[in-house]
Amino acid sequence: MRFQTLRQLVELCRSESTTVARLMIEEQVKETGETREQVIRQMAEYYQTMKEAVRRGIEQPTASRSGLTGGDAGRVASFAASGDPSSGREASTAMAYALAVSEVNASMGRVVATPTAGSCGIIPGVFVSSQERFGWPDEKLVEGLFCAGAIGYVIANNSSISGAEGGCQAEVGSAIGMAAGALVEMRGGSPEQAMHAVGLALKNTLGLICDPVAGLVEIPCIVRNGLGAVNALAAADMALAGVRSVIPSDEVIGVMLSVGRAMPREHRETALGGLAQTPTGRKLTEQLRARKRSGSDEQKEPVQP
After folding, report:
1. CA separation (Å) from 105 to 120, 121, 245, 277?
2. Does the model's pTM come out above 0.85?
3. Into which EC class is this enzyme placed (predicted)?
4. Most buried of 110, 208, 266, 277 (most Cβ within 10 A)?
5. Domains, the chain, ranges and CATH?
């Protein structure tokens, strides 16, 4: 890639009078040796998988194999459609869609890791709800995924997208930044505004620990995906309004790396700290272990705290 930082990415876009998405498409063509059509077709397939995961999670609510989670996406979607959500119908819909994809992941369904399976709901939640809201064609959303990919590339190479290495800030935080930056560009913002959105988004998740109950990507991961989608919308709106990340986004990414390294082992996807070690978290873990010891791998009634 010709860029390794967000600043370099913006400078390339400015010098070539192009968008982040279109620049990333050309970089992918050079990196893979595939044609432009092949690269775009592959990304279009990813987007179709995302949309299908949203649809499945909303229309066919399924409990996770553990029985810990399931059905919350439908509850939020119904409330968004028929109630008067405090965050507004658009934000609540994005939240519902993000929950839907995360629940599909927890029930062993097919998702796209964006950038990880643990944060797979945020970009689809933002993208699919925005497509419905603004009437965008699939092609626009596919370009948006290239923009998100460029942002994710920089984060992954200068910090981390692994919860085991950097906590949940590395997974959910990165996804929020990717979604926010891409949404800014899809709504007509400049590459510079898109990168400010990334910094604004990442600042809000610095220090977020990874503390999955029973070591499963369910509690609190699914809820964090739902709320992460709303955070992405907010960061995008700030950037489009002209709010700038006073600390440059590349520096925020650097801080995310140092904060992740400073986190104790208990807060980096080990289930040895945080919510996983609350009385309820320990009780749920023991119930799941007892179920496993019984020799049954079948999905059962939801585990009760």
Report:
1. 8, 9, 33, 23
2. yes
3. lyase
4. 208
5. 6-293 (1.10.4100)
